[in-house]
Amino acid sequence: MHKSKNIISLIDQNRAILLLILLTCFSAIFAPNFANRMNLSTILISGCMLAIISVGFTLVFILAQIDLSIGATAQFCGMLCVGLQPELGWTLSLIIAVLAGALIGLFNGIVVVKFKIHSFIATIGTMTIIRGILHLYSDGGTKSIDNYSLGEFLETGQFPIWFIIIVIGAIILFVVLSRPDVKTIKGITTIVVPAVFIILWLTTKLFSPIVIITFIIISIGIFLVDHTRFGKGFYVVGGNPETAWLAGINKDMYIILGFVICGITASLAGSIFAMRLSSMTARFIFAQKALMTSLAAVIIGGTQLTGGKGNILKSYFGVLMFQVLFNMIGCFGLGFEIQIFINGLILAVVVFYEAYTNYRHELLKGQRPELLKEAQSIR
Amino acid sequence: MGKGVYAMSAKDNTVLVKSRFNDVDDKNGISKLFDKAGVYVIALLLIILGIIVSPTKFLTPDNMLNILRAVGMLGITACGLSFVIYSSQMADMSVPSAMAFSGIITVQFLHFGLVPALILGIMFGMLIGLVNGIVVGYFRANAILWTLAMQFGMEGIMRYVWSGNQLYPDLEPGTSGAAFVNIFRMKVGPVPLLIIVMIVLYIIANIVMKKTKFGNQLKLVGSAYDVAKCTGINVRRTVLYAFLISSFTASVAGIFITSMNKLGVFYLGEGYDFKSVTAIVIGGMALSGGRGNIWGVLGGVLVMGLLNNILTFIGIPTAVQNVFVGLVFIAVVALHTYKLRKVGKDYA
Amino acid sequence: MAGKVALEVKNVSKRFPGTLAVDNVSVEFHQGEVHALMGENGAGKSTLMKMIAGSYNDYTGDILIDGEEKLLHTPSISKKNGIGMIYQELSLARPISIAENILVGRLPVKYGVVLDKNKMIKEAKKCLATVKLESLDPEKNISEISQHQAQLVEIAKVMGNNPNILVFDEPTSALSREEVEMLFNIITDLKNKGMAIIYISHHIPEIFRIADRVTVMRDGKKIDTRSIDDVKPEELVQMMVGKTIDKFYSKRKGKIGDTYLEVQDLTRYGFVHNISFKARKGEILGFMGLSGAGRTELARCIVGIDPIDKGKVIKDGEDVTPKNYDDGINKGFAYLSEDRKSQGLFLRLTNEENILSALIPEYSRSGIYKKSNAGNIVMEQIEKLKVSPPNPKVGVGSLSGGNQQKILLGKWLATEPDVLILDEPTRGVDVGAKQVIHDVVTQLADNGTTVLLMTSDLPELVGLSDRAYVIRGGHMIGEIGKEKLTEETALLAANGEGSVCDVC
Q1: Which of C357, C367, C379 lies closest to B231 in CB terms?
Q2: Which of A116, A369, B56, C490 is most buried, with most CB under 10 Å away?
């Protein structure tokens, strides 16, 4: 009895990566044109925007909030980035785009904390506002530029040697400093995974610069949240605001900061996406799909709306899982609509599953252990 | 049932006592008036603003009818959605898909005749509400996440099954197609059918909310879910009905919007989720449930119509009007929250 | 064994609007000693402890720590002075790990920013060792461990601040016998290390096992402090309960009829097991038991709020085992919830709406609800229960505790039940309201309603009941007849002491 419970729990905890592996294998076997380096690289590249969005989005979930404006923020800031590039160049326009994202996040945070409005409603409001501004700024059409050099670099370029050395050096430094225990599984993965990554990076062309940048951003996110005292505060605020208050942690500041970071990652994601394509569409379905998929990815990754729980890495696995799924759907010749439907279906299944588990749990809450033992011995 | 103990004086004094007390409840006269009809005050102010902005064209019967027609569908969806909000379930994000779905189904089955097609359309639309009601009502799933999932899923289905192509009703005169398309354009006397349906729905909704067992229990469920459970109310069934009602009105609105656009397509309901919630909240119904009334919701709908109309007169494009709507929404919610805070009550 | 005085309260008092919760109390708490604080609900022990914890900044009198006077006006000042509180509602965050909870707000870092996970685990283990939980993996989440272990983690967390004085507030209500043993071992251990331990409880057997000295409070005053060797349980009960002659219970006028309600072998696995009893028409049947014994669960099962696994409810010869609460109300049952704020009253609505809330099905025909039929009922209840202000349109949230309770009672009286179950009907209620409620309930029984009274207010139980049953650990222990029913016997029986005659 106990053992099967543990196995189910283990599977449930790691469902994102398990599903990812399952789908990848399935696709490799059954989906035409799936298993080649080009396609795999494409999958990684297409997952970049959502991956970056989900870094901040996961943080908001950890705080027991929700941010429905991320798609709109990504789209608008991306458009801003591309739109301003001709006059200001990439660097400055990127900075402005990210600042805009931060401001949107700040607005969300203040509305939620100071006006005490539920984040769901507040961020729908923000989303609508941004949509309007987006339409105004884009005049209904796509914003694009003719300069594809950055885009090409991001997709198929190569970083300069000094950059590669710094990154590899940082990875090695981090692994060494964390002093992994070679006897545990965790310790072994801490050494093996970075090693495999470095080898793959240097020898194959699997990881485009944009993917590397995404990895860096994800790593920063994970570092912040899992390895700093400050980052751990998010979990406490979201897990039990009482505990946070009793321990002297400033709940309001954390919530506002969470929204700001979410806005920053959303704008960053949109900007990088726009840089890659050297354009950004004004069709709002872009923002909606971004929201849909990020939401499903984060929830499949195991983060819950109730707060205090969340894992950026698992959210990334969730994103990758969806990218593999969408790619597979494409390989089978099915279209965009199927993607949307599957997205909704998976989200529905996960939400229902979590509700059902909770429902069963509530029914049995408050049982006295001795009485249960008694009951079992009678039966 | 057993006997109770009656205080003899009660029956005699009741009338006297009732006239002595009015709605005390912590507020003075003006504040209470604002609470009950505040949204109509805003509407009045907007009308005045409209007259200022465009003295000749604003206060004409034509323009007034325009406004009403523009908000007709919003009025209908907000009417049903307010039941979900009243029950403190926070959201029904699947309204846009229910609208589009009922329209598509109706057009799809027009060859069975107009009335059977309409019935089928509404039934299919309500199917969405049924699923929502079961999952959120009985299994207590998060309403926001679940209805969002439904919305995505249904949109995907509609895109796929009808292959992203619009479904055009056959418009030969004399066919059900023509009759269907006429629904939106039909008038009873000078008043469009749409408006009449909307008003009728509001009247019915008011009766349901105030005068039925379901409506009164709904208020209790929205006010305090756990207390309602300990008061013998079947809270899960009540929530189920709320979602059914929401999907019903969404279906009706969907038929009108499909008729208006002369095609059945997945995106017709877009924006109605947010717009409906905005109207409901502007109208004074709190998201926390158990507060507000249906006429306030109608007021909120009118306010939004007036706002959009005035903005159009000023020359602001439709898409940008969203910005203003969003800002007004946040301002109104903040105001409500502030007032409630002052009296020491719940959140918005 | 007793060391010097670690904490002393001298002539302290705390006033709330309307009551003097703590009245001129002086007690000394010594190092290396477990000092129990006993008293019934409302005796003032929780307030006294909150004072020590720094929850109030307006108490009068002196509090001395190690001989020095300190002003304990905020929780952090208390903490800084070495006082550690372990509350019943744990202050842990469930989704995060044990280590993070223990060290919350002061997680160890290296290189300035980076979290030192190894150090964190080591420190957490150190704290866990003080409660003998070294084997527990500090990386587990609180949601994955049992309630008992969570409580120990809470202690470990408090220990991490190096307190000299530990206060336990009713720590054993949710624990099994073995877990209580473990807790006691830890407490004894801590005591031997020199800590001053204050243990609040009203479980007499526990006090005798763990305490060295005991102070009894009643009505805000300290009755006496005695060494545990020189006092007997009956004496403690007498001190707790006192000779409250000022409380006068009206004589019962009505005649008690035959058996009207019979509960057979009622079982809900894990909550109540095999409970059987009989209640007569017009009888007020008391149910005695310590908190957590299962009385509330029993009540909820009888009326249909919670599902039953086994057993029957028979009323007036008919099997009326309810399928749900609506069914139960329909069949003539009513249950007045224990917690009026979260389960009893719609705080955001008016008196009128609350009183009518359970009557909606009664006044509805084919879905239409006719409120006009119910118009008089509201004023009837308000007048009968002397609600102040007698305005039906006032928000119930603005009423005092006593008046709120009256509205709650009015809500259920309005349903004209055959069987009314009251759960802590006068908790947090002022004396005047209490009297009114008692009178109304007595009158109700006199007119033929069967009343099941579940309360931990002993004078109330003894004064109102015609008979009493004793519930402990989810089981029916036995019955106490009217002749033998005194506060002492009731409390002893609930604690498992003294002789109780079995009837069922």
Answers
A1: C357
A2: C490
